[in-house]
């Protein structure tokens, strides 16, 4: 019997050969959820984190959408850039993190996606539960603003009107909401604001969406999350 020498042994492979392996896919999606949550809790933009780590914003977007699994040096740089331990990027749900206070006037302003000028969206709080992300938002809309066409996503909305009026279409039904009214509906049903507000509009909203699909929270449009 011939004994294999060191020269006969195959070279070690640094990268995962089968990126479609279920365990690798699970790690990618866990990392994507945890990375987004830690970044949002620290009110850090994707551009700022990418610049701190030394990678492109496009690469960070792929990591946060579970399209790419970064190398160990990049993982270490991400953890260091966020001021957390590497294990925090693969640990338990973010609900175990310390309570977070968002003081009045310090709410981070979110990009509106397909929302046109005249709309301001601020993040009042967020929480990650197993398989779900939840956010508390405040939307301020000026008269004449425009909103996306009907959108759908795997989750839910709870809208509470503080000031102004709006008409929401949920599926085939329309709902006229006035100050003090609240509307709860599932995101799987096509929904949109069908009438432009006649005056200033302020809405407090609770948004929840499933993260098990690896959906990018920044996406808007049919088939993804949308701002009502």
Q: How would you sum up this structure, described in words?
A:
The structure is a single chain. 21% of the residues lie in helices and 26% in strands. With 228 residues, the protein is α+β, with helices and mostly antiparallel strands. It folds into two domains: 22-92, 434 Repressor (Amino-terminal Domain), CATH 1.10.260.40; 109-210, Jelly Rolls (Sandwich), CATH 2.60.120. It is elongated.
Topology:
Elements: H1 22-41, H2 46-53, H3 57-64, H4 72-82, E1 109-110, E2 119-129, E3 132-141, E4 155-163, E5 166-170, E6 173-177, E7 182-186, E8 191-193, E9 201-210
Antiparallel strand pairs: 1-2, 2-3, 3-9, 4-7, 4-9, 5-6, 5-8
Quick overview of this protein structure:
The chain is of the alpha+beta class and 228 residues long. It has helices at residues 22-41, 46-53, 57-64, 72-82, and strands at residues 109-110, 119-129, 132-141, 155-163, 166-170, 173-177, 182-186, 191-193, 201-210. The chain has four helices and nine strands.
